[in-house]
Each structure stands twice: as structure tokens, then as C-alpha cells.
Amino acid sequence: MNSISRRKFLKISGASIALSAALSGTAGTITKNSSLLNGGSAKGIQKIPTYCDICFWKCGAIAYLKDGNLWKVEGNPEDPLSRGRLCPRGTGGVGAHYDPDRLKSPLIRKSERGEEKWVSVTWEEAFDFIAVKMKKIEKEYGPESIALFSHGIGGNFFKHLIKAYGSTNISAPSYAQCRGPRDTGFKLTFGEDVSSPERTDIKNAGCIVLIGSHLGENMHNTQVQEFAEAIENGASVIVVDPRFSVAAGKAKYYLPIKPGTDIALLLAWMNVIVEEKIYDINYINKYAFGFEHFASYIKQFTPEWAYPETGIEPDLIRKTAYEIAKNKPKSLIHPGRHVTWYGDDSQRSRAIALLNALVGSWGRKGGFYFPVSMDIPKYPYPEYPKSMKGKVDNPDNKFPFSNETITNGIREATITGNPYPVKGWFVYATNLIHALPNEEETIKAIKNLDLLVVIDVIPSEIAGWADVVLPESVYLERYDDLNVEWFREPFISLRQPAVESPHEQKPNWWMAKKLADKLGLGHYFPWNNIEEYLDFRLKSAGYSLEQLKKKGIIKGDKQPVYFDEGVDDTFDTPTGKIEFYSVQLAEAGFDPIPHYTKPDEPPAGYFRLLFGRAPVHSFSRTQSNRVLMDMMNENEIWINQNIAERYGLVSGDYIRLKNQDGVVSNKIKVKATERIRTDCVYMVHGFGHNSKMLKFAKDKGASDAQLITNYKVDPLMGGTGMNVNFVTFELEV
Known about the structure:
Helix content is 31%, strand content 16%. It is an alpha/beta fold. Among the domains are: 1-102 and 476-506 and 527-566, ADC-like domains (N-terminal domain of TfIIb, Single Sheet); 179-371, Dimethylsulfoxide Reductase, domain 2 (3-Layer(aba) Sandwich), CATH 3.40.228.10; 607-730, Barwin-like endoglucanases (Beta Barrel). The two termini are 20 Å apart.
């Protein structure tokens, strides 16, 4: 299942209410106090504003308590991101609080790593264990030999701790395993990246081009709402995808492209637009650098040339190119998000950026706006110690256009000891076993560690390999750092607790501060509690915590976001222009204009494995949430109907997948459909858990991550292209 019906969508609020009502009657057995923090015996309905943590979008939300018990979560109408509406994941947030598989107390490993045998300990014992190990690593290898992997705003205080300790090896899979190539391609072209949330002006677009971007399935709330508005306003939609996605059902043109050939299509589109002079001539004359060289280069990439590569008829390539050009500058070729596909992903994203430049969409209404934010000063911490060794992830600047720390670079250094040993990992709110490609390499790196600390709310697979597991309060039970968002309108939002944690779980800020004390770094956390820290920052800007707690959000004044509103129309590139020809790429030995490379073909009897998201789950983090699992408790493998018939398969059958390296998956349900090409299969990411402590989610569906043993590294920024694996079917289950 990859989409939800309207009936299912509406059902989720009822499921949330039913679950919380059922569990509230036995709250004494699962919680210490599931009541409002400032009124434990309160009767009736209380509303506490916060912002969501089920995904990274950080939508403003309202938590409702009924007679002191957590009841439901809805969107905050004051919030520009949610606009009063949450996606199914956000609405199901109550399930995170009531999840019986939650980590309940600190754990220390009592046997071999990976065996998931633990001793429950006090917080004091856990911190003492960690501090002793960290001091030993620092003495023998230096502080840089500790690395942090972190996802989301909740990791801010652990980032601060690791910097105070003396390490700069802080990374997130969201860069090298998700958005990094996109940001690199756009930065090389325009001098700025796409930001997060993306600076896409979807609601004002006249033409929206989605190349493998599954809006409506990859449920980024604001974008989906704006997508619906754009369609209502008559925008034309072009969907390029090997699979007929939910978004494809809204499209004027659907292009069922051969996987791995996107650059060929993009070059052909640009060929048509340039050769027929239907690009934004004034925009190009004013802002472009190297356009003549670019125009000469793409003459060879005609629709007829692209047809055998992509499988898209030349006439359809031309029609869609005309549609894009006709709507300029309100033509938005969406940059996507999870774009680590084939190893040439930065150049693919650069081709998308150049197509947007041709139609003049950057800095224009209906294209890409310039995000703004409020000025909230940082806390005046002491200066961090200077690292003597530098970062470990990118030795000799192997990936010259990487501007963030590369997760797989840290992993490689942990395995090889080059350029220096990495002996300790902190992993916050990210399941590296599912997030990084090639599980065997991740486990090999872990075996070289002297210390692995995992901070999470559920016992994920990476927690099963830890030396120490620290149970975090879920977002409805804690404060986090201020969300000073970059968006089309500036605002600050607050995450604050609505209920207490049910057992011995603690917020991340408390853990970081306590561990800092053990390490002699308490002066880096001079505030007494999180409220004091938040209030200090807010008062520095003329606001207060009490003011923010009431509505959960403070909005700033409207600011210009387009060139014609007064945004500075310069570009932070070496030439100060939009770079159609990149001198810096050429000087570094790379193609200055995107170049197409044929994708590898599958072995006989194998199919390219594609994967994506579902609207009711986030990564591999939510499969134990009973509310969300009620919507989708396993994934399916999409197989073309003709291929399924050839193998004697029908929807509902169970099979196993075997990849090109002989790795075999859990059993997975077949979805036989005409909505996917014959040369590939598709599954939703995040299922197939094997953690023994995830009692409900264990063995539900199959893990795409387990099958991704092969990957190609992007030579510009080090990201891991993961759509390069092939699978066949094992029919006996």
C-alpha cells in the first residue's frame, strides 16, 4: 500500500482518540503521570501548542488533553507550515506516547554487541559508564575520535556537547543519503541551495514538474497542501516516474521514464527550449554566465537522441518542453528531496537547476522564493576548543564540493583508521542500520568502536548494537531548541511538553547537560534548565518564553521573497551569475555542464529495486506506533502485472526478494499492477525490522535497506546513490 483512501485518512483521528481512550484507563501501569504538567488533576479539555517531530518538517501542532490524559494532536492554525492541518503521521503522534515498545530506562549491554541482551541501569550509572569510556578515548586517540550522527532539531544539544568535547565530526544521514546532491547541484548553479523546508513556490506555480518526487506519498505537509491549491488553480502537472504515483494521477502528462535516464530527458528538454528560443531571453541575458557554451553543447541532445535512452517518445518530449516554456517563469521543476539514486546525482540536480534557470523561475513567483527568518541570537556559549586534526570524513578533499559532514565518510574512517581512528559513536534519533547503505559495512565499523551510545525513543536496530542505550522522551513530553524557521514568512515556534514521560525517559537537553557535568564540561551548559535557556534567547530578541508558550508561535513582519519585491538579485557563485558553464567544476576535473551516462542494466531475470515513502510513516521510526500501523502495518512490492503473471503471482501473494549479491529479504506481499514499468519493482522504505524489542513491528514486511548492498558514491559531494541494486523473486515462503 502506498497511498491511503479518504476513508482511511479520516479514520486516523478516530483511531488516535480510540487508542488514547483505551490506554488512559490503565495509565497507571504505563505512565507515571500522563497529565498536563501544570495541572495534573485538570478536568475537561486542555490545549498545549507545540510542533511535531514525526518528520523533519516541524509542523505547528496543538496537543489536546482530556481530563488530564493525552487525547489527540491537531494542526496549529497560527502556524505557516501546518496551517491548522497535520498529515496522517502528525495526527497519529499520540501513538508515540502510548507505544508499549518504547525504551523505558537506560540500558547497558551485558553480552556481545548485536545480541540485544541488556542490564537496566540508573541514569547515573549510564553517564558514569559513558564518561569513563569517553575520557579513555580522548586520552588515547584525541577528542576527534568521537563522532555524532544526528537527525532533527532534537540533536542540537548533543551537537553542542560534542563540539565542547573537542570534535567536529558531526553528521546527519539527511545530507549524504538524502538531499546533499540536490543542494550541491543548485549551489553550483545559483550559489545557494534549496533550503529545508524547500523554497518551492508550489501554490503560485503554473506548471509543476515532478521527476521522481512523490508528493502526496512523501507527505511534506505544506507542499502537499500547496500542490492541491495549485491544481485547484489550474496548474498543469508533468510527472516523470517509472511508477504511476499518486501525483501522476493529477498529471496532464505522465512520462514513464526508464530508471536512471533522467539526465537524458533533462538535456532533451533543454535542447528543445534553447533551439526553439522559448526560454526567458531577458532573464538569461541579465543573469547567465556561459550560456553560449551551454547552448552549443546541448545541440546534440535532441528528443530523437533521448528516445532510445529514456523510452519517452520524441513528440511527448517536445509537448512537455513546450508546456514548461509556455508557463515561464511560473514553471517549477521540483528539485526533490531523497535524490541519492545513481551516483551522478549532483549533476542530475544541476540539470534540474539549469532547466529552472532557462525558464527564469529562480527568485520569481511560482518558482523559487527567497526564504526569510527572524533574528534570534544564539546563546553566548564559551568558544569551542579548536580541533587539531580536522574532520575525518573527507580526507584530502576527495569530494571537493561537499559542504557538510559525510556519514559514510565517518563510517569508512571507522573501518580503516584513516586519516585517523574513530573509536566512539553517538547516534541520536537515526537508525543507521536502515539509513546507511550496505548494512555489513555499518556493522564492520561498529565492531571497531570502543563506545557506541544510542539515544532514541524506540529500540531500533542500531540500538541493538549499542553499548549504552539512552531512552528519550517523545516530542509531546519535552522541550527542544527553538525552531527559528527559514520560510516564505518568518516565525519562531516552540516545542513544549504536554504530558510527562511514562517511565524513566528523559529529554535530550537534560542528557547532554548531565553528561557534560561528568566530563568536566559543565561550563558549556551554564543555564540551570531548558526554560532558562529558551527565555534567555527569546529575551535577547525582545520576546519571552511565557509569550511563546501561549500560542506556540511568534510571527515576524512580512519581508520580500522575490526579485521583483526587492530581493537582491545577485548570485553567490564565482562569477556572480547563474552558471550554465561551471568554471569551478571544470577546474576540479568534472563536467562543467551535466553529462549523461547510461545506467547499468540488470542481470537476466532481475529488476531494478526502487524505494520511497508512505504518507503514514517516517523513515524506519514509526512502525511501532500503533495508530500509524493501523493505517499501514506492512509494505508491498509493486510488480508490473505482466511480469507478475509470468511468475504466476497475484496481489496478496507473499514472496521473498533476492538481490544481486545473494541477500534474501523477509517475506513481502505482492502488489501486481499496471502502474509500474516492467524493468523495475518498488517498495516503501522502513519496514522489515529485526529488532527483538520491536515486538509489534518485527518481521512486518521487508527491508529495502537490507537489500541495498551496492551503492555508487557521488564524486562531487560523497553521497550514496542507492537505486543501483537489482532483485529477483523467491516464490517459496
